Model the fold of this input.
Amino acid sequence: MLNLNAPRPLSEQQVAFFKTFGFLAFPGLLGDRIEEITREFLTIFQRKGGGHDGRPHDGRKRSCIVPFLDQSEVLCTLLDDPRIAGIAESLLGDDFNYMPSDGNFYSGDTGWHSDGWQRDITHIKIAFYLDPLTRDTGCLRVIPGSHRIGEKFADDLQAQIGRSEKLWGVDGRDVPAIALETQPGDILVFNHNTKHAAFGGSGWRRMFTMNLCQRYPETRVQELRDYLNGVSRFWVERAYGDIMMNTAGPSRRRHLEQVMANDGHIAELSRKARESMAEPSRG
Done:
């Protein structure tokens, strides 16, 4: 784990580490807020009745709520916290975009994957784990350098890691990686391209994330809209919730404005997603 504190901005060494290896870890960074964060997490899931479909979490499969921070005025302030803002500004620029967040109860193993595969617009995930986790109980594992598209190591992993047992003779949990063991209050940050996984965890692991990215050039906003399409599977009307938007000051609004200007199509996609789920199966 690197660095007890996240200076604002991050040091040159921290930024270089992130660019080279694709992740950073900050033990205890938000230890002073973990009690209120955990309380708000549980309140949201209780109020929602479970995941985005309203089904209570039963420990057998992942339950997920999107957007998540947006359900709580307290959690929305994480975007304003100088420790979080300092990380984001250092890695993405002062005009970074806040993207939709997700809150989760995880269950069992999560195989190796990337959350995206972007060559020249950096997307990052800031992860908050609310339970103590070790390499054998579901902590995040990362493969350093796996985010560097265009380099042979990263490209080979992208093509082959889904067949690790056949190609390399090792199960996913035995793929060489760093296990980022955490305690509540620790913060993990990784590039969306970075290969990550978790093994051996229980069915009740609590975790939520903030997704952030560099601002898209105006000539490429259609790519941003395409990225936002994925939010529709959670049956939401907009990328952000009302609380996130209505409590935003000028600084936060700067990080919301580009997405707010380009998420109007989500409502129709969500309607179609709901209808497809409601259709009786044919067979």
Observations:
- The beta strands are 23-26, 63-65, 97-106, 110-113, 123-129, 140-142, 178-180, 187-191, 196-198, 205-213.
- The first strand starts at residue 23 and ends at 26.
